[in-house]
Structure prediction request, 670 residues.
Amino acid sequence: MATATTGRKVTWGVLDLLVIAFALIPVLWILSLSFKTKDTLTDGSFWPQQWTLKNYADIFQTSEFLRALVNSIGIAIISTLIAVVFGTMAAYAIARLEFPGKRLLVGLSLLIAMFPQVSLVTPLFNIERGLGLFDTWPGLILPYITFALPLSIYTLSAFFREIPWELEKAAKMDGATPAQAFRKVIAPLAAPGVFTTAILVFILCWNDFLFAISLTSTTASRTVPAALSFFTGSSQFEDPTGQVSAAAVVITIPIIIFVLFFQRRIVAGLTSGAVKG
Amino acid sequence: MAEIVLDKVSKQYPDGALAVSEVDITIADGEFIILVGPSGCGKSTTLNMVAGLEDISSGELRIDGQRVNEKAPKDRDIAMVFQSYALYPHMSVRENMAFPLRLAKVDDATVNAKVEEAAQILDLTAHLDRKPANLSGGQRQRVAMGRAIVRNPKAFLMDEPLSNLDAKLRGQMRTSVSKIQKQLGTTTLYVTHDQTEAMTLGDRVVVLRAGYVQQIGSPQFLYDNPANLFVAGFIGSPSMNFVPATLENGELHSALGTTPLTDRIRRLAEAENAPREVILGIRPEHFEDAALVEAGQRTTGSTFTAHIDVLESMGSEKFAHFTMEGDVATSAELAELAADSGSADVPGADSLIVARLSAESRTRENADVELWFDADKIKLFDPASGKNVTYED
Prediction:
């Protein structure tokens, strides 16, 4: 048995390492590039031979990147907030209530989630120019909410379905109004689901490139993924790879912070003990 | 504490299905009423209508003389214990029990006092600061009870509260539920599937079948005088034995031989215009090993010979299982009961008869034995309507 267990451990260990390497090597590469000097960028070494922070200093000196960072954070947070609040309401209704048109609503939101976004870019471009939304925050927030809502409705309704309905009945019997039952019993239990959804939606909005590049034209609303593609270096002949890498590293930081911040709230099995066990 | 009146209360779902039909029950102040019946008989629906969790389609529900049909659950001042307990997992035991009081905006000192008191009654004092996830099934059940008793409601509603516990714990909790109810004197409506709970807990039992009330009465009365085949077959464990029989010239012919009717039975049957073909019902304890029946008593009954298939000795008594040749008693009620208990799938189970014999009986398995049954204790049922034609008020 002992050898079998050891053999198993080794097999799994190797497999785990493979998966981790597959996922992390490109990230580490970008990280390494961002610390390399201009001359050593193409030396082919995985480990920087000469360390420098110049790339980071450069991107923070250009107002373009800082402005894009502010746009990204602002737009993603506002979209997330709105999508999660409305998603929570819709998901609760879908999980708990029977109302006419429920299937239609669920079907439509599924349809939106599957709709190829690229086919919407041209019409949206024209509509937004006509409405004066082009190159503004709302011009990006609106399409983000549109595509984030189905995601949040789906994730959240799955969470709501897992909360035993009897808890709500019990709260009613204990003297709670429907609003109190939702606030004191259902909402605390749904919190992990809400945070999970918030993370997913935030990442969706944060990473978007398609709408960001097509519906913006100036730093007024250009987000980081779009701004990155406009990096040119200080002269036309300068290779901006180092700066692009530095910027790429910088924009992953908010996501990591976001996930770490909410991770503690995403406690699996919070509902255990509610009903028979 | 309150009197609860269900006045022709019905529940019809939008798709037309009738779940509960014109239920009339008057529950006196402080009374313990059991709603019992097989799955889908409408007992939980009835309870939910009293709770206010389901709308009443027609009829009136009155608590203390006031119509409450339109009132929200929170305004009815009724506490409920759920089958799944429905404890709030994010709150400690203390917070769970305090929840109804907090909602009622009771001051902290009173909340603490009441929670401590309830915890004392339910033996939960040591667990007040734990979360439900860390409690055993029995403890969770007690927390659910605690949440109901802290606020001194007008009535308790319990929906199969013990069905998730294992057999031994269920027995203990049954006693404590009964004790707590007597101690508090709160009107209680208790739904169960369990025979023993129905027999032992309630002041009165309401037997439901497919949304219709079959009979209401004290457990002993229902046991002794079932109104129909359904009640007869449902109440009692092991259940009543049924054998088809023919009434002729004051005698009863069946697979158990020919039995002269006693005067009492004949009078009752005649008053009810009993049909010629009847179903004979005998409770297991009304059989006895003929060898143990004294000669004087023998004449009040009838004897027959049976081949014992299985003999279960419980120490204090013996259960003899045997089959009698002849037809199997059939009726809609019996079929439904068999389906509910799952015995419909057991081949030949219908014609199986169970007799409870004294421990002194020397009967052995796979042996022929002469058995006696008390002719005055038999019940006769009309196979068409299921009605007990020997019913006595």
User: Anything to note?
Assistant: The longest strand of chain B covers residues 301-313. The radius of gyration of chain B is 24 Å.
